[in-house]
Amino acid sequence: MRYTNSHIVVLGAGESGVGAALLAVKFGNKVLVSDRGQIKAAFKKELEENSIPFEEGKHSESEILTADLVVKSPGIPDTAPLVVALREKNIPVVSEIEFAGYYSAAKTICITGSNGKTTTTLLIHHLLKKAGFDAGLGGNVGTSYARQVAEKDREWFVLELSSFQLDGMFEFKPTISVLLNITPDHLDRYNYEMQNYVNSKFRILQNMDHDSWFIYNMDDPIITSEIKKRKPETNCVPFSIKQPVSFGGFSDSKQITIIIKDQFTMSIHDLAMKGKHNTQNSLAAGIAGRILEIRKEIVRESLSDFQNVEHRLEFVARVNGIEFINDSKATNVNSTWYALESMEKPTVWIVGGVDKGNDYSELIDLVKEKVKAIICLGTDNSKIIETFKSVVPTIVEASSSEEAVAFGYRLAAKEETVLLSPACASFDLFENYEDRGNQFKTAVRAL
């Protein structure tokens, strides 16, 4: 449904909110942007330049409750009293992705999962661009989908979707969707019920039919069990790193194989990204490419020359034979599990920050196998020390990136790795995970 000449309220004035406001105004709607916090100067300037009314530090309920439609920031929970009041008045509350979809004729590839979605989104976009597609990149990464549609609609959009964005999507129908994995995350937003979070992820399928394609990880027991229950009426394409499939994609220790209309193979050693989880990401991207009938040479080239997102298993430098890797984006245990799993040399692991109720015991076997020393980088490291003190002989504490990197340089030997993969949020010592990663890189380059 396309809104014109309507009263639209945008809750939240971040990248997605300002993008939605610009799109709403373009189609002649009366718009109010309302943010309960302070709006960043750059976004405020943009709203002023486009004569879009806004308020900060409050929500004027009397006006908001007269809206024809509300576009909500993914950061605002559905349980917020204002959102509850809107729903009671039957005022539609949607995400910026849903809203942008009303105005876009583009075909979409939508990627979700608990881990790996940013990497896979960027990889699929890289593949489409290399194949000459007119493809935008948006969602939970980069510039908002709504802003891009306001500027220029495209033939394709590759969109990373979080569960919070999916919760506000109702009519949206992906051309191709990808579900990478489902592990516990954000359960505080889902009443601590795992099934609620699973249902949220599966919203990606809600409007898909025989004209669309669903690529999924058949090694994930939650996903396979839900597919058996739900019986999706779309083209389901599995991938596996544990067993061969006759249709879809799989890998063994030597190569990946993708079978859609015909067979595509590629040596696992030629993939740009190492580690089992990245093999899964490469399989998902490769399958999407072959569904779109992108030439095999271009798929092969794209999977071999892709450069991963900053702060995600990012190679920083090699100093006197010691490799330093920045995985600051790993803010939960599951992300760190993937990082440790991909380490091929003895590793000094920098971990810690604001604990989100982490269960570090899931990492014990990997730590035994891969880690020679631990550096705790946080204000309260007691849980990490307690979990690993009988597993790793050396555990030290650092209170800054410089100190952590100096310890890493001392504890690692030539041909070994120092890995920053915190498994925690960053807000005790840093502004955010980017700040943490950048300070780590600066400290490494100063060695």
UniProtKB/TrEMBL annotation:
It holds the Pfam family MurD-like_N. It is found in: Cytoplasm. Its main location: cytoplasm. Its EC number is 6.3.2.9. Pathway: Cell wall biogenesis; peptidoglycan biosynthesis. Keywords: ATP-binding, Cell cycle, Cell division, Cell shape, Cell wall biogenesis/degradation, Cytoplasm, Ligase, Nucleotide-binding, Peptidoglycan synthesis. Residues 111-288 form the Mur ligase central domain. ATP binds at residues 113-119. It is an enzyme of class 6 (ligase). InterPro entries: Mur-like_cat_sf, Mur_ligase_C, Mur_ligase_C_dom_sf, Mur_ligase_cen, MurD. It catalyses: UDP-N-acetyl-alpha-D-muramoyl-L-alanine + D-glutamate + ATP = UDP-N-acetyl-alpha-D-muramoyl-L-alanyl-D-glutamate + ADP + phosphate + H(+). Residues 311-424 form the Mur ligase C-terminal domain. It comes from the Bacteria. GO terms for molecular function: ligase activity. NCBIfam families: murD (TIGR01087). PANTHER family: UDP-N-ACETYLMURAMOYLALANINE--D-GLUTAMATE LIGASE. Cell wall formation. Catalyzes the addition of glutamate to the nucleotide precursor UDP-N-acetylmuramoyl-L-alanine (UMA). Belongs to the MurCDEF family. This is UDP-N-acetylmuramoylalanine--D-glutamate ligase. It comes from Wandonia haliotis. The gene is murD.
